Amino acid sequence: MPAASAFTAGEYERRFGIPRERCTILPNGHEHVYAQPADPRILERLGLRDGAFLLAVGSLDPRKNFAGAAEAVRRAALDDVPLVIVGGPNPRVFADRGTELPADALHAGRVGDGELRALYEHALALVFPSHYEGFGLPPLEAMALGCPVVASDAASLPEVCGEAALLAAPDDHRTRARQLQELAGSAAKRQELREKGRAQAAQFTWKACARGMWRLIAAELED
User: Fold this and answer.
1) Spatial contact of 172 and 179, defined as CB atoms under 8 Å apart
2) Which of 44, 52, 143, 187 lies deepest, with the highest CB count within 10 Å?
3) DSSP labels for 108-145?
4) 9 near 138, Cβ under 8 Å?
5) Domain range spanning residue 21?
6) Domain match, 45 and 5 both
7) pLDDT tens-place string over residues 38-86
């Protein structure tokens, strides 16, 4: 049985009683981020400056912890560095689930692939303090495109990020704020994470995922 991460395999066992040894780990890949050229016009449309905004990406779901991302950004107190939230059609989706999107963040909604690439490539960092992820594609996309990542140490994210990101507990706003301050103040640290991130992302490919899936299918056909 395929699983996107060892964490997900553990969840199969915990929730459904499927032994981990029956699972084959087939992580997602990163190559799709290169399919469209970057469209930097979105920076002008949103009033953003290169390297002077923080990015949060994901569906408008409370487990994504956008409120925690905004709290860390507030505590970091970086001058003129807004948090830009990408994902979901409009903030009412959050409100309908009994949660409010941070009022002091910029809500970009859904964007095109080229626009998202440009945001990754020009952001100071991706802030991804999610409580729960079966894999966690945005950090992988960010690393592949040279965007430093500040993420949660929960669920599957340590598997995806390895040592190429700054990690902290989902609700450890103080540590995450310090991490953001460190990135904002150190070009050397940003460059270090860019290099580590690209190397980490290169280990996750759709070709490897497809080959692994084909081996599973072929094994089933032989039975």
Assistant:
1) no
2) 143
3) EES--HHHHHHHHHH-SEEEE--S--SS-HHHHHHHHT
4) no
5) 1-29+205-223
6) no
7) 999 999 999 999 999 999 999 878 889 999 999 999 999 999 999 999 9
